[in-house]
Specification:
124 residues; little secondary structure; rod-shaped
Amino acid sequence: FDTTLTTVPGTFDTTSTTVPGTLDITSTTIPGSSDTTSTTVPGTFDTTSTTVPGTFDTTSTTVPGTLDITSTTVLGTSDTTSTTVPGTSDTTTTTSETTTTTSETTSITSEATSITLEATAITS
């Protein structure tokens, strides 16, 4: 019984183009993992990070997983406008690193929400 499958009949495959039998929505690498917007390593929750998915990275361009706003030297330290040694009491370093921290889990969607059983369309 095969309706929409183009690879291996008997398994539920809708949008997967690589490995049938796994639920693959927008992942272009490894289907079968809950991957929506990640383009590197599926199975991890990646929104705006372009380097290491699964960590919360907004504007950092070097080491994701740390909150980096305007620092261009050492990430993970409270550094705003310092241009010499970040993380030390240097001129105008007055902003805390944790002011704009956002939780990664705010927009996580479960993969199981759109799973449909193959047996629903079976006719004896």
